[in-house]
């Protein structure tokens, strides 16, 4: 049923937690058994082998009946029609899942298209399913045989997902087979240097001409700044676009005319690319056509430097959930450090998403993305608990990346060579609140190929070198990412089967930059959670100084005296302490990958109006009074942030004023104190100074005053620039 989370209740929290599962994966299945079809409570078993041999070891072994032209119980499959052929060859394979077959007999018909709908047919053959042989790779494929008195040649066998025929087989319970898509993106850099002999479009126009270059690649349009007052303008500006292989779009530049670029040049490092001059062709009124272009003796031209940037990584997803950090050019790729294998087993408890025959229905498929490779399972028709049992593999070039498939799994949180089998809650935030749309059952394994290379990666920059040698501006990164997402969505929308644009945008987290009061609160409490450790340590030290626990304070005094007497032990002690803490925390390490946390996301207690604002369009489509109310609320929040930022600026300016003579008396006192401190520290051993300062801070409460300390009082009296603000 449709569920909405509204509080921190324990039963509701359990519903959104990750659940351990124990599926019967391929490597856990028993082998042996008799060959044939075992009806009722039995099933198919492989004969002639002690153990199932399969590469599908992260999915449940599902048996299929593989045939060509089939009419079986409530299932039916039909080959494509071949026109006017006496000896037609179809070479088509049909797969029928064991769980849905309701008959013990297989019937194969050969019909003429003209006889469809009649009882006449060219041939018919029936098989007893108990006699159908079982084939498990690496067994040799079954040779086809002539059946129905030589009317049709076919092969019938029982197999699993590991069968070579599985990927291209027509599945009776699905609408489309699984698909894979790879979109290779490049940055295209156009350095517009200058132009020469530019003729104005209207020679009679008076005044200073302002010339600029407009460049267009597909739907992407960028312009240089305007340069006026000359027929030889100088720009020297970079225009950066996103281009996708096989580079179907043209690069078009206009000053007042159009430029066609020739062969593209690719850059693999930061070394400069040679520039070229390009003649401008007239277009529009007065344009030269055909052979008349050769008669042109004088032409304007533009100086360009154009290259495809292969040393950058094209960002099409948020850097927080990045799945690939390699440069675009394959020549710069390093060897993979691991292999990621994902078994998409199935889903449970899916909610109806459409109406069919007066009832709710769901045609479910799963999409996964890692790196440049997108995969899509076959679509299971009309099922709220679909079973896919499909396995996919990716090469891993960096373990600090994220796999996205409805849920996000960070590879660095996975132990190597361990199979994680969990049921992930599909949590979706909707305008009505947070809802659980079902559960996704996965089996995940990360295998390390080179421990040395993987350890080396932890000291490398996350992105390729060019991102740091010649970085893009923040605005450029946002604009290029938006263009990259649009190109990926368009390409996958033309794939077969097509992937809807909203699915691609959800996978790439296209709305991560939009304002959300809920996310702002969640991020604030994340910061508070980080600071809570420092606050806890400060409170503990205050308790030590106030002798709340005399034994602890005595031990701290002893440790302090040892470190003062042997200062060379300070750093080793700190690192040893962190080592012991890490060793102690190993007992409490996470046992499963992180998952969506409704409490961390602040999604279970969010106000309905804040959710409505989060899902509002941009620009807003709400009535004026609602917009005014939200604007006032935003002003209130921004006012508090403004106060905090102002207080931080005030403290910094007070620190600057210590030596800035804004308060002559305070600065005089401070520099005299600095002189006295310098002389004292020169003549006094460091151990004595450290011992005196430490014992002073750890003194007993009877020697303390409840008033603020002298340094604190002095600092608070220093001036800041707040007096000069309007």
Report on the architecture of this protein:
The protein is an alpha+beta fold. It has 4 domains: 56-80 and 89-172, no CATH class; 184-283 and 296-309, Immunoglobulin-like (Sandwich), CATH 2.60.40; 330-508, Immunoglobulin-like (Sandwich); 518-724, no CATH class. The protein contains 13 helices and 34 strands. Strands 1, 2, 25, 30, 33 and 34 form a 6-stranded antiparallel β-sheet that branches. A hairpin with a 2-residue loop joins strand 28 (367-370) and strand 29. Helix 4 (474-493) crosses helix 5 and helix 7 (550-565) packs antiparallel against helix 12 (686-697). The two termini are 58 Å apart.
| Share of β-strand residues | 15-25%
Helix content: 25-40%
Distance between the termini: 58 Å
Shape: globular
Counting helices, strands and paired strands, the structural category is alpha+beta
Unreliable parts: 1-9, 28-54, 72-77, 80-86, 257-262, 284-288
In angstroms, what is the radius of gyration? 35 Å
Count the DSSP helices: 13
Which helices and strands appear, and what pairs or packs with what?
Elements: E1 4-5, H1 10-15, E2 19-20, E3 64-67, E4 70-72, E5 75-77, E6 94-97, E7 105-110, E8 123-128, E9 145-147, E10 152-154, E11 157-159, E12 170-171, E13 179-182, E14 185-196, E15 210-211, E16 214-217, E17 220-223, E18 227-228, E19 234-244, E20 251-254, E21 258-260, E22 266-267, E23 276-279, E24 301-309, E25 338-348, E26 354-356, E27 359-361, E28 367-370, E29 373-376, E30 387-396, E31 402-404, E32 408-410, E33 419-430, E34 433-448, H2 451-457, H3 466-469, H4 474-493, H5 501-507, H6 517-545, H7 550-565, H8 570-585, H9 608-614, H10 624-656, H11 664-683, H12 686-697, H13 710-716
Helix pairs in contact: 4-5, 7-12
């Amino acid at each position: 049923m449709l569920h909405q989370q509204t509080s921190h209740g324990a039963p509701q929290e359990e519903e959104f937690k990750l659940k351990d599962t124990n599926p019967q994966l391929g490597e856990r299945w028993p082998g042996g058994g008799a060959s044939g079809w075992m009806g009722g409570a039995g099933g198919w078993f492989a004969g002639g082998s002690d153990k199932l041999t399969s590469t599908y070891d992260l999915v449940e072994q599902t048996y299929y009946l593989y045939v060509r032209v089939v009419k079986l119980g409530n299932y039916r499959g039909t080959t494509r029609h071949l026109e006017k052929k006496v000896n037609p060859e179809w070479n088509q394979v049909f797969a029928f899942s064991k769980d849905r077959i309701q008959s013990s007999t297989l019937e194969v018909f050969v019909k003429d298209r003209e006889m469809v709908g009649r009882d006449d047919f060219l041939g018919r053959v029936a098989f007893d399913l108990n006699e159908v042989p079982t084939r498990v790779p690496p067994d040799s494929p079954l040779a086809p045989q002539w059946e129905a008195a030589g009317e049709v040649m076919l092969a019938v066998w029982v197999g699993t997902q590991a069968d070579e025929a599985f990927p291209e087989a027509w599945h009776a319970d699905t609408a489309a087979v699984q698909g894979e898509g790879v979109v290779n993106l490049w940055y295209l850099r156009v350095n517009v240097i200058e132009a020469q002999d530019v003729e104005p479009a209207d020679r009679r126009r008076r005044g200073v001409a302002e010339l600029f270059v407009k460049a267009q690649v597909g739907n992407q349009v960028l312009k240089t700044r305007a340069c006026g007052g000359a027929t030889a303008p100088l720009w020297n500006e970079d225009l950066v676009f996103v281009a996708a292989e096989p580079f179907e779009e043209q690069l078009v530049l206009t000053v007042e005319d159009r430029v066609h670029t020739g062969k593209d040049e690719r850059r693999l490092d930061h070394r400069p690319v040679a520039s070229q001059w390009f003649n401008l062709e007239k277009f529009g009124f007065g344009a030269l056509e055909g052979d008349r272009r050769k008669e042109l003796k004088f032409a304007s031209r533009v100086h360009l430097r154009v290259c495809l940037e292969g040393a950058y990584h094209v960002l099409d997803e948020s850097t927080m959930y990045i799945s690939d950090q390699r440069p675009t050019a394959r020549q710069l790729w390093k060897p993979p450090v691991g292999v990621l294998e994902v078994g998409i087993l199935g889903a449970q408890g899916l909610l109806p998403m459409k109406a069919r025959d007066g009832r709710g229905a769901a045609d479910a498929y799963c999409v996964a993305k890692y790196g440049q490779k997108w995969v899509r399972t076959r679509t299971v028709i009309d099922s709220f608990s679909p079973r896919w049992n499909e396995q996919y593999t990716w090469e891993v070039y960096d373990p600090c990346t994220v796999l996205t498939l409805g849920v996000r799994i960070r590879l660095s949180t996975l132990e190597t060579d361990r199979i994680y089998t969990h049921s992930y809650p599909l949590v979706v935030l909707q305008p009505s609140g947070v809802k659980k749309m079902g559960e996704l059952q996965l089996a995940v394994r990360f295998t390390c190929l080179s421990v040395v290379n993987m350890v080396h990666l932890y000291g490398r920059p996350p992105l390729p070198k060019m991102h740091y040698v010649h970085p893009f501006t923040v605005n450029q990164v946002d604009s290029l990412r938006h263009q990259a997402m649009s190109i990926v969505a368009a390409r996958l929308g033309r794939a077969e089967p097509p992937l809807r644009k909203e699915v691609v945008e959800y996978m790439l987290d296209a709305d991560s930059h939009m304002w959300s009061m809920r996310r702002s609160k969640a991020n604030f409490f994340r910061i508070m959670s980080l600071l809570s450790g420092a606050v806890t340590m400060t409170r503990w030290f205050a308790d030590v100084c106030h002798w709340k626990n005399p034994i602890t304070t005595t031990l701290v005094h002893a440790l302090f005296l040892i470190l003062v007497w042997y200062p060379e032990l300070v750093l080793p002690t700190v690192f040893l302490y962190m080592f012991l803490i890490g060793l102690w925390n190993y007992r409490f390490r996470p046992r499963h990958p992180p998952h969506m946390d409704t409490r961390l996301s602040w999604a279970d207690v969010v106000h309905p109006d804040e959710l409505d604002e989060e899902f509002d369009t941009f620009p807003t489509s709400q009535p004026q009074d609602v917009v005014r109310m939200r604007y006032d609320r935003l002003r209130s929040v921004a006012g508090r942030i403004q106060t905090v930022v102002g207080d931080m600026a005030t403290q910094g300016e007070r620190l600057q004023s210590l030596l800035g003579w804004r308060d002559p008396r305070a600065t005089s006192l401070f520099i005299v104190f600095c002189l006295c401190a310098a002389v004292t520290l020169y003549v006094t051993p460091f151990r004595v100074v450290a011992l005196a300062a430490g014992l002073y801070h750890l003194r007993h409460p009877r020697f303390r005053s409840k008033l603020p300390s002298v340094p604190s009082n002095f600092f608070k009296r220093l001036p800041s620039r707040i007096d000069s603000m309007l």
